[in-house]
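Quick log. Single chain, no ligands specified.
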Amino acid sequence: MATADLYQHKAAAETLFRRKRLAAIGLPLLVLAYLTYIFFAFDMPGLMGRASLENAQKLVSDSYSYKTHVTRDNRSGEVEIAIEGERKGEYAPGTSPAWVALGDETVIDLENGHIVTFSADNAVRYDVPGYGAITAQPTRASGVNATLPAGDVPDWINLSKNRMTVTTDAGRLTVTRNRTEVFRYFTGWELFFFTLDSPYHGLSYAEVMARALGGEAADIWTDFWSNKMWRHGDVAWALFETVLMAFLGTFGAAIVALPLAFLAAKNFSPLMLVRQVTRRFFDFFRGVDALIWTVVLARAFGPGPLTGALAILVTDTGSFGKMFSEALENVDEKQIEGIRSTGAKPIQRYRFGVIPQITPVLLSQILYYFESNTRSATIIGAITGGGIGLLLTQAMITQKDWEEVTYYIILIVLMVMAMDWLSGILRRRLIKGDGSGH
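-> predicted structure:
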């Protein structure tokens, strides 16, 4: 028997080792096969072929810089200069930055020898160091008549009958039948504090502080808060709407889910039919993503922050209902019996015997979801037309000013960090009774 048992244990050990060897070899092969499938299913070779490092560099540079556009209407000869090409950032007639000289001829100094000249006869000339002079005469009849130095056309010049684009490190020149435009990049977020029409534009920090201390603090704040380019007041309201959506949706769901959780808990709802129906409702609500509920409710109630709050409420009602019912099923019956022995009614037993036991779990989950929903409300707001998500989506779709996109993203990150910090403080105060913040 001893020998038979030994052979049996040896055979079992060999079988176990074979299985482990197969798992050790098979699992990596399975993962490799899956990654290979993903590589071709998502057309990674095509994606890498379509990727443009140059476009990525432009996108990154747009996030921390701005463009000043110098535009001539080829029909009227009128020259306009504007930050980011916007009317709200337009220089007053007859004024210009130091690198643009207005007159019968408009001379634009892009520095390092790059000079663009708008001639009185609608012609344009771009002197490119190391290459030569590029000239163009736009006409309505024959399009853009361009003249380049002898030789092959370089990659940084895009030329057709009706359009010429010259892109260099100094800036960009675009000529069409009706318009000639030059823009130049500058580092920073121009007009972030004050617009061109503000009396405080161009002043140093010390000068602004001196005026503020001299009694102009309210006017300075008004000019900053009502900035037409960056819309700080509208952005602050959008952030408030985002937090409000998350707050109403999260705490509204908690209020709705708590009484329903009693119907789904075995120890509080003896009827199986009631429990199963309630739990299936919870599964249905949380089984459909908040974005889907957002689309559905937007069709029913129209766009707005309230629709986003309702979408969060519906989804979180299912999640909270499941978590609350599980917490109720794990309560200590002895504490409830102690309350019952005093002659307390059912409502009183729930209030003093059940709620204190599950409060730490409830508050912890509610605050966590509130923090998480603050992030989700950004995306939901983009669909329902409210909050910072709407402003972010509008800026990205129009591809107007990527520095604005960066501004909104930074504010969203700061908002999430603030909510995380606030949520941690509330959890310590309400659950552990620690208000020290450590």
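The chain has two domains: 66-187, 232-432.
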